[in-house]
């Protein structure tokens, strides 16, 4: 059994892989994961895999926002960009594409050629193009994230570039009498407008964009990106687990190297 862990800012994703198949997956709130399943041990965090209902693993590979805060005992740590590129290649079978990952607190665009990362751009300084921004805007509108992610038609213009000022602007638009679908579409378009420069830098019309992260689960943003950038958008089966899957894929190569070295 091989274990991949993505220590995200909003959630921790865990994947167990056996015989190159995903056999177990878990998504936990980040605070709950650290509070209930981790304990500090010699400067590292020992994860209680038994309490998580997970058996022993031959190899554990971790990535994500939390990897720099406290290392997981016994785990190999890899960069987020590498984990996400590996996960996207494994999930889609594609080798030439541009990866867009929108997470809880950052956004990444990675250019992949022949299965390898060749260029990238990230935005980890502003929450305005992330899942947390969408959570806040859905709360302002009084709707679920699922409902918010459905709308792309007749978007209201929202020009604020800051997540905090964006909430104030949205409230102003509500007062002006726009409908919830128009407001939700406007929110989704603001996400697109913030990642568009990164996409424009690393992809061209007609190419394929693989879209991952929790934000990719909704239908509006893939539709907007396809229409506005003239690309084909592929959302893999498990977009939110992509980083954890990439870690498990890296664990596969580690075990293979160890077996090769022992011969």
From TrEMBL:
Residues 4-251 form the ATPase BadF/BadG/BcrA/BcrD type domain. The keyword Metal-binding applies. It comes from the Bacteria. This is Acyl-CoA dehydratase activase. Its cofactor is [4Fe-4S] cluster. Coiled coil: none annotated. Keywords: Iron, Iron-sulfur, Metal-binding. Gene3D superfamilies: 3.30.420.40. InterPro entries: ATPase_BadF, ATPase_NBD, CoA_E_activase_dom, Dehydratase_Activator_Redct. It holds the Pfam family BcrAD_BadFG.
């Amino acid at each position: 059994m091989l274990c991949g862990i993505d220590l995200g800012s909003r959630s921790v994703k865990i994947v167990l892989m056996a015989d190159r198949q995903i056999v177990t997956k878990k998504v936990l709130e980040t605070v709950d994961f650290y509070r209930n399943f981790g304990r500090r041990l010699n400067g590292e965090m020992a994860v209680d895999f038994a309490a998580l209902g997970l058996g022993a693993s031959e190899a554990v590979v971790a990535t994500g926002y939390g990897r720099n805060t406290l290392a997981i005992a016994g785990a190999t740590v890899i960069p987020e960009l590498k984990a996400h590129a590996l996960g996207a290649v494994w999930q889609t079978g594609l080798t030439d594409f541009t990866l867009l990952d929108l997470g809880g607190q950052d956004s990444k665009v990675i250019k992949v050629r022949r299965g390898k990362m060749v260029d990238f751009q990230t935005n980890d300084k502003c929450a305005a193009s992330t899942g947390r921004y969408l959570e806040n805007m859905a709360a302002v509108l009084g709707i679920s994230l699922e409902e918010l992610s459905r709308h792309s038609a007749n978007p209201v213009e929202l020009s604020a570039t800051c997540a905090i000022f964006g909430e104030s602007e949205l409230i102003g638009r509500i007062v002006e009498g726009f409908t919830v679908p128009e407001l939700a579409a406007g929110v989704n378009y603001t996400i697109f407008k913030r990642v568009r420069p990164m996409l424009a830098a690393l992809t061209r019309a007609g190419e394929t964009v693989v879209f991952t992260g929790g934000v990719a689960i909704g239908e509006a943003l893939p539709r907007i990106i396809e229409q506005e950038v003239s690309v084909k958008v592929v959302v893999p089966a498990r977009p939110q687990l992509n980083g954890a899957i990439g870690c498990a894929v890296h664990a596969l190569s580690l075990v293979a190297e160890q077996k090769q070295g022992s011969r």
